[in-house]
Amino acid sequence: MFSDHYGTAGSPYQQPYAPQVHAGSSSTPLQFYSAGPSNDFPGARPSLDGHVTAGGVGGSSSFGGNIQQSAGWWSAFGTGGFEGEPPLLEGKPPLRSLLSIELGINFSHIRARSMTVLNPLRRIDEHIMDDADLAGPLIFYFSFATFLLFSGSPQFGSIYGVALLGTASLYTLLNLMSEAGIDAYRVASVLGYCLLPMVGVGAVSIMVALDGLIGYLLSLLSVLWCTYAASGIFVAVLRMSDQRFLVAYPVGLLYGCFALLSVFRGGK
């Protein structure tokens, strides 16, 4: 009724198969795998014989490295990193270089032109505005408006409006007066950089009210300073030294408007 795989009949309860040992054969049991390392597979590696200790794996000289103990959860908030790991910003340019490359902000030019405005008595290079920018002027306009805001006189719209109208007016006048001519971009850059003394007056207005004698003197001094610096740069760039007073007059009127905005608080 029941038959095995070889077609012979048998009972349903078969005896387990026992291998027969022939005479003359070895009594060593059959082994299907070797206990030692095998090099039959290209990806095979020596087994990790030995025991695992706190410092790593011992007993096998063929295994390099060790098993480090895991630190606590607070190690995720540390700055140590892994051993031999390079710093995150290694090989990357600093922030100043990134701003100079991506946004076109050259801090060395801003510093050089600011020092020229702060020291207008020294000789001005006629090529100082060959590479004009608006990063510095925008910073100075925004700083001036912010200082006036802190002093209780919000004048953002008035400052930007006066700057735009003054730039357009001086661009027209300078091109009518000079033979070389100048573009509006450089005019805006010169007027913005020369606003730096007026920014200092705006910073003083936070602590001291300028609607008095001290405020009038400071405002007058800043107007003369800004006018002298801006007219000197325009004269050097356009080579019109014999017309400096004609250039200084409209420039002084423009900075006088900024002084009025800083002295008289329109927020009252």
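(ticket continues) Second input and output from the same batch:
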Amino acid sequence: HFGRTVFALCNYPALLTAGILQLEELQDSPLEDFPADSALARVLQREHRVFIELLDSYPGLMDRLTNGEEEDIIYVGEMLGKGASGARGDDTKTLKAAVLEWLVPRGQAVIPPLSRNIKSDQGFNHEVTGALLCPAGLDWLNAETKQSLKSGETAVRGDQWPIFLYSGYVYDSEDPWKGLLRSEILVFGFKHVFTSPSSVDKEPKATRSGNAYLHGMKSVTKGSLAYIATQAHSVSLSSSSVFSRTDTVTDSENFYHSILDLLEDPDESEEVCDLMMCRVFPNSSSSQRSVSKNSALSKIRERRAALRERTIADVH
């Protein structure tokens, strides 16, 4: 679950080893000593944050790392990596089939048909998936552009985001934040992985088997958005069959990092905060639950509000 919601492309043995060393070094040179806008500071801050969140996710991990030998750290890292890779593979397997059902409106057929087991027909080699993967700002309907993407003459880098990330698959060059990471495919993919596959077709409903329920996840995270976007981009729609740090077909590592970089950029905090407010999970917080009229709870809150107003009036 850590890989899905915090950081997907970890080299866990290296992360643990560097994290322990960094904890010692930070006692002498805290991160605040580095220029806030330096690339080094950003990298160190992310690595340190990921390491600390990993420690928080696994009680007792810190004691095992600090009291164990170097071989123990490597072993723990390998086991964590194996678990994360397995979970990522499970998501890839189910999403590859599910996404094909979301490419066109319900009741319509994908033409020409796509096979769930033949990836070579997807990506820029198919009219529908090609249109969705076309980088925002390019025109898939332009014959020259389409042919250039199909042939590979136009190499698409990971930070050239595809149109399918946008709501309605529409990109506004004057307002590039508009609709970003709000597309139907991403929303469906998020529900499929974190609540349950059945929640895609109906209002979210907590299930005891959903990943979010099992891990106490109650809100969208920056890592989870980047994770679902990369799953859809690098495996479900493209002609690639893997989502990994070594995937060069879709440049998935660069794609994942570029989205995470944007979401973690302090200068974009207002837009990111608005994006994080998307309600995907049922009963995600008590403040979002409405109170039934004339219930005991509503009466208690009404009485408390009246007492508060009376106290304020008496003071003035």
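Agent notes: The two ends are 53 Å apart (CA to CA). Residues 281-289 have pLDDT under 50 and may be disordered. Closing as not reproducible unless the customer responds.
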